[in-house]
Each structure stands twice: as C-alpha cells, then as structure tokens.
C-alpha cells in the first residue's frame, strides 16, 4: 500500500520508544525476576534499546550505523543463560508498559509489534545459551506490518 508509514513512524518515532524503554527499564529494576538479569545495566541502556527497536521497525540506523547492529545485539546475549520464565516476564512487562505509556494500540500495529517481540525475545534466549558462537555477520532485522498489510485508515480503502 503506497504511503503506508513504517511501524516506527506509526508508533511515534524515537520519542515514543524512549518513553517506552525508559519506563520499562524502571520497572525492570523493581521486578524480582528481571532485576538480576539487568543488575549491571548502563544508564543509557534504555536509549540503546529504543534505537535498536526503532531501527528494526523502520526508523533510522541509530543503534549502530556501521551495519553490524544485529551482531552487536546478539553479542550482548551470549552466555547470559536466559530462560523461558525470564523471557515471558520481559515480554509481559514490556507489553504492559506499552499500554501504560499509551504506545499505539491499534490491532494492526500491535500484531506486528507483538510478532517482533516474540521473535526477538525467543532468539535472545537461544543466543544466550552456552556454546552459541557470535556470528561474523547477521543482517539487521527489518520488521513491517505483516499479514494485516498496514494500518486501517478510514477512507483509504480502495
């Protein structure tokens, strides 16, 4: 569909993602399941995650303009021994936070957003297990609207 905004633009861009990740990681620090995982998180971690998610969702390459951003993200998960309970708590808390900060909540956007979070969080668990090597290259994921094909905009049918 010509003129369909990227997921990044639809959700409100970097400012909306920074609001989401800042509030999310504030909650992570208080969460008994997740706080140990992120105990040594840098103060700028929410900004870096916002930039990574933004790039995946069609925003500018702010996370790592060199083009190695996905390899870099995989490297952050190596040997972390993440488990399904942590992944699920991360996923649930992020979606709850998205609701609470009023991130776009239309069905088409949330379907795509949830799809990315499911895929990415499951990949993080896989990459965190012992013996997983860091790949020499891995293209940055590019997430789009998916099956719904983009947002419903009244009057734009046709």
Plain-language structure description:
With about 160 residues, this protein is an all-alpha fold. The protein has a single domain, classed as Globin-like (Orthogonal Bundle). It has helices at about 5-10, 15-30, 45-55, 70-75, 85-100, 105-125. It is globular. The termini are close together.
CATH superfamily membership, which one? Globins
Distance, first to last CA: 10 Å
Helical region count? 6
> Residue ranges: pLDDT <50 for 5 or more in a row?
none
Class inferred from helices and paired strands: mainly alpha
What is the CATH class? Mainly Alpha
Major sheet attributes:
none
Strand content is under 5%
The CATH topology label is Globin-like
Task: Round the Cα radius of gyration to an integer and report it.
Answer: 16 Å
Topology, number of strands: 0
Mean pLDDT: 85
| Overall morphology | globular
Number of domains as seen in the coordinates: 1
- Helix fraction, binned, reads 40-55%
Order of helices and strands: HHHHHH
Q: Judging by the overall fold, what is the CATH architecture?
A: Orthogonal Bundle
């Amino acid at each position: 569909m010509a003129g369909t905004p990227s997921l990044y633009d639809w959700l409100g861009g970097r400012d909306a993602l920074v609001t989401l990740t800042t509030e999310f990681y504030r909650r992570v620090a208080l969460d008994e399941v997740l706080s140990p995982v992120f105990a040594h998180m840098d103060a700028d971690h929410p900004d870096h995650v916002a930039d990574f998610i933004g790039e995946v969702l069609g925003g500018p390459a702010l996370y790592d303009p060199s083009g190695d951003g996905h390899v870099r993200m995989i490297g952050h998960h190596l040997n972390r021994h993440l488990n399904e309970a942590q992944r699920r708590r991360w996923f649930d808390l992020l979606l709850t936070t998205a609701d609470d900060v009023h991130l776009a909540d239309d069905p088409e956007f949330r379907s795509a957003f949830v799809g990315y979070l499911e895929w990415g969080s499951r990949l993080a668990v896989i990459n965190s297990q012992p013996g997983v090597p860091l790949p020499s290259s891995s293209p940055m994921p590019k997430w789009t609207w998916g099956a719904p094909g983009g947002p419903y905009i009244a009057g734009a049918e046709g």
